[in-house]
């Protein structure tokens, strides 16, 4: 009995020692061996007493007589590294782990290597100083709120290689002005210069920004699509939209006006406008649908529900009058490239709206 117990303790200690021997430091970065046969390692952090402003993750590291390929950055590796300002990720790294760079508030520059295929959930959460990011063509998967809270980020381009993207990947990126999906992506698109990410097959808008124009053929606004977009002051929802999911406009605290052209009230989750004081907002809807909206939550909670175009009368024009800095819609909320004969609805850059009759 005692011999068996001693043997188990010996095996356990051997395992611990073996495990410890598989980690090492090179230039104050800590690595662990992930495959002794394939000579691969993952980055797991820094020396505990080491403050650093710039990190370069190499393609390979050498310890003793062995050279290892650096293929991953593990979860939490650089979380809360407040002194970090720039990161360069080597071309052998394939995955960036959960919360790897989360809460690196001073991180301004990230150069992602051209082999990275997956960015895990919350990887760059609250990197508030990050102003730009180039996602390489090797990328296939972006999980969860990978860039959530990167409030200084202004532009994002999703390459055609990305085929799995969670809609809240950019939640809380209040500074976003431009979102583009590269042509040729088999799963997502940014049709009609919409400044949004749309799931092509389902016509679902999964991620938007303050400059998003929802296309006329979008049928669903997904959960968290505009989450944390505090710079959004107004939104136009076309007649094609039939469903709005929970948290679609959560924390959009800058909202003042919602223009919903849907004659049939969209199926809308009661928490679609979570943490938004809708009692201070004005909802603009088709005249024939006023009663339906006023009796349906959460729309009924809006401070004012008024007919679209109320208060401006109808301005009459002839020919192709040029209305600069204005978006043109028909009476069904479909955006058009120019005014058609009959009644058109014009929206100013500041959200003002009026009816114009072109003869």
Describe this structure in words.
The protein is elongated and about 80 Å long. Residues 4-21 have low confidence and may be disordered. Strands 1, 2, 3, 5, 6, 8, 10, 11 and 13 form a 9-stranded mixed β-sheet that branches. A 6-stranded mixed β-sheet has the order 15-16-17-18-20-22, with no helix packed on it. The protein starts with a helix and ends with a strand. 7% of the residues lie in helices and 31% in strands. The protein has helices spanning 2-21, 290-294; strands spanning 23-26, 29-35, 40-46, 54-57, 60-63, 66-73, 86-89, 95-96, 109-111, 118-119, 141-142, 155-158, 164-165, 178-181, 188-189, 196-199, 204-208, 220-221, 234-237, 243-244, 257-260, 267-268, 282-285, 304-307, 314-317, 326-329, 335-336, 342-348, 353-358. By secondary structure, the protein is mainly beta. It contains 2 helices and 29 strands.
């Amino acid at each position: 009995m005692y011999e068996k117990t001693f043997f188990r303790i010996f095996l356990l200690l051997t395992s611990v020692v073996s495990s410890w021997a598989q980690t090492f430091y090179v230039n104050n970065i800590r690595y662990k061996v992930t495959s002794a046969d394939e000579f691969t390692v993952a980055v797991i952090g820094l020396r505990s007493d080491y403050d650093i402003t710039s990190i370069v993750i190499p393609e390979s590291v050498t310890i003793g007589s062995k050279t290892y390929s650096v293929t991953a950055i593990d979860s939490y590796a650089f979380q809360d590294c407040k002194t970090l300002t720039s990161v360069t990720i080597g071309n052998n790294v394939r995955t960036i782990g959960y919360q790897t760079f989360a809460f690196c508030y001073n991180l301004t520059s990230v150069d992602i290597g051209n082999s990275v295929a997956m960015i895990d959930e919350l990887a760059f959460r609250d990197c508030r100083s990050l102003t730009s990011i180039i996602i390489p063509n090797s990328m296939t998967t972006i999980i969860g709120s990978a860039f959530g809270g990167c409030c200084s980020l202004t532009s994002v381009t999703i390459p055609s290689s990305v085929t799995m993207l969670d809609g809240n990947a950019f939640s809380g990126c209040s500074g976003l002005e431009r979102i583009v999906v590269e042509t040729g992506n088999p799963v997502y698109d940014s049709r009609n210069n919409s400044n949004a990410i749309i799931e092509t097959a389902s016509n679902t808008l999964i991620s938007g920004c303050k400059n998003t124009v929802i296309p006329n053929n979008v049928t669903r606004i997904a959960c968290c699509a505009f989450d944390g977009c505090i710079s959004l002051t107004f939104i136009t929802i076309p007649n094609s939209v039939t469903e709005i999911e929970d948290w679609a406009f959560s924390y959009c605290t800058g909202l003042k006006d919602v223009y919903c052209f849907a004659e049939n009230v969209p199926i809308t989750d009661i928490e679609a406008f979570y943490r938004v004081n809708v009692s201070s907002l004005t909802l603009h809807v088709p005249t024939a649908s006023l009663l339906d909206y006023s009796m349906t939550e959460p729309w009924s909670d809006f401070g004012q529900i008024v007919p679209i175009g109320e208060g401006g009368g109808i301005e009459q024009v002839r020919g192709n009058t040029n209305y600069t800095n204005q978006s043109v819609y028909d009476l069904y909320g479909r955006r058009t490239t120019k005014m058609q004969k009959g009644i058109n609805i014009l929206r100013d850059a500041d959200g003002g709206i009026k009816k114009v009759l072109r003869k």
